[in-house]
């Protein structure tokens, strides 16, 4: 659900047995940029599959998510999205007034709510252009669903009618197809060179050369001392690199101060010192390309 490095995500598991956590909501991951720990937390969700709870309160989960995002983002300009994966089996204690307050909270936080339904909201087709017809279907009981699912369906419908642009329903079959587009990157490969590669008179084959399309650069790694106790604080045990310069002919390898180190370039077999002014001029004119024509004439033509 994230395809950019600057995305920040959180993960809340709701509908747990209250003996596992105070209340029925567990914060698997607080808000932050996704990393390997986040991936590990997602993979460990399977360990909660044996939870005996019938399901969580969708509306309580929505409210907790809204509060978490609002407290984290505050006044920063973020695009806020909430994805709720649910089968709609959890009972709710929310009354009409609480639902109205929830609608107001969604409007205040200005978040987009995406309900991903598993064996739930099955009659709803988000691809149908006639939205009123699809919403009317949700107002009717579905014989393949339980009473709790039908009730949750109608309560979600009431919220969507209030704020249709901020609440979307997706059956799991359609949602998974939509999510695939976040996992891929498309490139149009262009051939830079096309020709025959000849190794010998008897060994030839056609080749095509492509330019580089994409490169993911890994972040620079920090070095830490293993002689001190490890601490998560980024400045604890950090090793700073220091370059020591010395003259190669010096048997004692006495360090040379940085102020006494100069730069030079090869000109033929000679080494020509490079002054700071010349170095600055080279840096300034690095992008410029110039050509010179040197001509010689016999003396009688001068």
From TrEMBL:
InterPro entries: DNA_bd_Ku70/Ku80, SPOC-like_C_dom_sf, vWFA_dom_sf. It is found in: Nucleus. Pfam families: Ku (PF02735). SUPFAM superfamilies: SPOC domain-like, vWA-like. It comes from the Eukaryota. GO terms for molecular function: ATP binding; double-stranded DNA binding; helicase activity; hydrolase activity; telomeric DNA binding. Its main location: nucleus. GO terms for cellular component: Ku70:Ku80 complex. GO terms for biological process: DNA recombination; double-strand break repair via nonhomologous end joining; telomere maintenance. Keywords: ATP-binding, DNA damage, DNA recombination, DNA repair, DNA-binding, Helicase, Hydrolase, Nucleotide-binding, Nucleus. Residues 203-286 form the Ku domain. This is Ku70 ku80 beta-barrel domain protein. It comes from Ichthyophthirius multifiliis (White spot disease agent).
């Amino acid at each position: 659900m994230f395809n950019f490095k600057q995305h920040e995500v959180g993960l809340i598991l709701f509908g747990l047995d209250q003996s596992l956590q105070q209340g029925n909501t567990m914060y698997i991951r607080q808000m932050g940029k996704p990393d390997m720990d986040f991936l590990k937390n997602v993979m460990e969700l399977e360990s909660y599959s044996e939870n005996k709870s019938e399901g969580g309160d969708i509306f309580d989960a929505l409210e907790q998510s809204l509060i978490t995002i609002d407290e984290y983002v505050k006044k920063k300009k973020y695009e806020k999205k909430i994805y709720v994966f649910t089968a709609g089996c959890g009972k709710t204690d929310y009354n009409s007034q609480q639902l109205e307050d929830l609608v107001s909270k969604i409007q205040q936080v200005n978040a987009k709510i995406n309900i991903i339904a598993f064996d739930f909201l099955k009659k709803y087709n988000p691809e149908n252009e006639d939205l009123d017809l699809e919403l009317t279907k949700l107002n009717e009981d579905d014989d393949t669903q339980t009473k709790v699912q039908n009730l949750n369906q109608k309560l979600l419908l009431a919220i969507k009618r209030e704020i249709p642009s901020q609440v979307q329903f997706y059956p799991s079959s359609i949602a998974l197809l939509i999510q695939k587009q976040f996992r891929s990157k498309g490139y149009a490969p262009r051939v830079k060179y096309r020709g025959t590669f000849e190794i010998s008179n008897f060994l030839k084959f056609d080749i095509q050369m492509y330019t580089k399309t994409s490169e993911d650069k890994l972040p620079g790694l920090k070095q830490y001392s293993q002689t001190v106790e490890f601490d998560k604080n980024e400045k604890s045990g950090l090793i700073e690199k220091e370059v020591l310069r010395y003259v190669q002919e010096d048997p004692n390898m006495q360090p040379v101060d940085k102020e006494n180190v100069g730069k030079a370039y090869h000109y033929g077999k000679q080494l020509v010192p490079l002054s700071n002014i010349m170095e600055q001029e080279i840096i300034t004119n690095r992008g410029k390309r110039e050509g010179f024509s040197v001509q010689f004439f016999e003396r009688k033509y001068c």
